[in-house]
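Supplementary material to the annual report.
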Amino acid sequence: MSNFKDAQNKAHPNKSNTLMSALIVILILNVGIQIWLLYTGLNNALEDNKDIALPAFIASAVLFLISFCWLYFLPMGYKKTGKK
Amino acid sequence: MSDQSNQDPHWKEDFPVERTEATKVSRRDFARFLCLVSGGLAVGSGYVAVKANFFPPEKVQGEHFICKADSVPTGGTRSFVLAGSDIPYILVKLETGHWRAYEQKCTHLSCAVYYKPGSSQIVCPCHEGFFDAMTGEVIAGPPPRPLPALEVVVKGEDIYVRAGGTELAKK
Ligand code: FES
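Predicted assembly:
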């Protein structure tokens, strides 16, 4: 069975390097947003505005899911051998 | 399933023999680490949400006697703790004659704050945080929130505190 992973693994390193950088930039972006969400949720909860905490958690969880699925697209590096 | 056995075990991907196959190992690890951090932050937010919604901090119950009114000079302070809790509070008699009671923990990083006589400001020495002694609001510095307050009740010569000072101070 051949899927996009095989093609990706055989792609030129220049290509997968770019892809790798893009993936990492998005992950860092996600983590940045999550830090902000946690900070805001916590500060508002301590100030007795607990309405913020739940949406912040949901958003954070969604971002985590995105980050997690994102890992599927990680290039596995150049494979010389034909087999997976 | 049968061709699984002649494949390399999964971990060998991270320890390849060929150098060209190793070019992405550390970045792959980094990306995975970022994902782990992301999960940690999501769990943290969840903890905050659960704590805020289901385990709110306990309110001070009832009224508590602190001291006699004449034992605190004008512009003076007195620190106290309420029975059954270990949060330090500070009772302030302002130059204007108002009584105020605040938590003595700075809302930035919990340093002990003190009243600066004559300035009607409560000062946090750690990172130069300043609070308005009348309302508890932040005037300057890093603290993100006003000081939590208690309501002070003067009954003749006796000083009592009870919950609800925050709303009062905001008025
Ligand atoms: S702990 Fe009070 S200003 Fe930082």
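Chain B has a mean pLDDT of 81.
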